[in-house]
Amino acid sequence: MSNPISSEISLDEAGKHVGYLRLPHSVHRSAYGWIPIPIASIRRGEGPTILIMAGSHGDEYEGQIIVSTLIRDIAPGMIHGQLILLPMANYPAALAGQRTSPIDDGNLNRLFPGDPYGRPTQIIADYIENTLLKRAQYLVDMHSGGSSLLYDGANMLALEPQDADEQAKLRGMLSAFGLPKAFLHAPNPLNISAAARRQGAISILTELGGAGMSSKHLIDQARQGVLNLLAHLGMLNGDLVPDGPPCTTRFLRVEGPNHYVYSHDDGLYEPLAELGTRVEKGQPAARIHFPDTPLREPVTVLFNGDGELVCRRVQAQARRGDCLFQLAARDPDRL
């Protein structure tokens, strides 16, 4: 079965075209309706094809603002190649301001490669992987911490390179993007980085702040980084090309389970370390308090590894299984 999504715009025509992907969605209030997923294509001449997207998680806002701004600001005469831009990739989630879709509770970045026969979020995932990424050599997917997490400033994520050639190319791309920190991580076959790799594209994800807010500083920094990356890849020219990357990037690695701290109790968590600080294995990370049982002593949660504290939970209320902290360690040899 082919994917039921249809596009109002042609991805093969030169120029700037803005419209919607139409995902058929028959419900009580709209028997013959469709879900409108905004899309833009900017194309001119020969060059790379780059997919830039945001709104995979609907409560992550900086990326949605940046991608919308790029659609307005970039004209066909400024580029060589093609930009495909999705500012609200999981439109139902973005419209609701939720991490997951209110229609099917779908987490778009955990549903690749998707399913054209599936629920709406699975259909979106299939279209992104098998129609859009199939055309692209590069992916930039813009995330932030959302409502429940807060990252320490502006960060980039990338898959561990498969060989020396990819390592060199990825280091150049991350340095050109130029956010303060870049984390390498192992592949997860369900997320979009793995989808890009399956389609032969190199991907960079961002994590920009969070806490359900938007930050002008992070928006400006990441927008400059995207534009500088496009120039680095030989696509962008003209007045929008910045003087250089916003920062010198530090390269780190997320070392699997040892770099995550979870609550094993329901209660209120008191953080015992601040974002940006270095911590050691066995150091107290948080105390879980139980105001509903006042005489019960709080439980102390420990860090499982050494590293820099790069992300923390926002809400003080925590349940068993909630992530409280994420760490990363310096990894100069990998990149």
Protein architecture, described:
The structure is a single chain. With 335 residues, this protein is α+β, with helices and mostly antiparallel strands. It has 2 domains: 6-253, Zn peptidases (Aminopeptidase); 259-330, OB fold (Dihydrolipoamide Acetyltransferase, E2P) (Beta Barrel), CATH 2.40.50. The chain is built from 6 helices and 18 strands. Strand 7, helix 4 (164-177) and strand 8 form a beta-alpha-beta unit. The protein is globular. The termini are far apart.
Topology:
Elements: E1 6-7, E2 15-24, E3 34-44, E4 49-54, H1 62-73, E5 81-86, H2 91-96, H3 120-132, E6 138-143, E7 149-159, H4 164-177, E8 181-185, H5 192-198, E9 202-210, H6 216-232, E10 250-253, E11 260-262, E12 267-271, E13 278-279, E14 284-289, E15 299-302, E16 307-313, E17 317-318, E18 323-330
Helix pairs in contact: 1-6, 4-6
CATH secondary-structure class of the largest domain? Alpha Beta
Overall geometry: globular
Rg computed from alpha carbons, rounded to a whole number of angstroms: 21 Å
Q: Which strand order do you get reading across the main beta sheet?
A: 7-8-10-18-16
Summarize this entry quickly:
The chain is α+β, with helices and mostly antiparallel strands.
Which tags fit this structure?
about 325 residues; 6 helices; five-stranded mixed beta barrel; about 20% helix; alpha+beta; four-stranded antiparallel sheet; OB fold (Dihydrolipoamide Acetyltransferase, E2P); 2 domains; Aminopeptidase
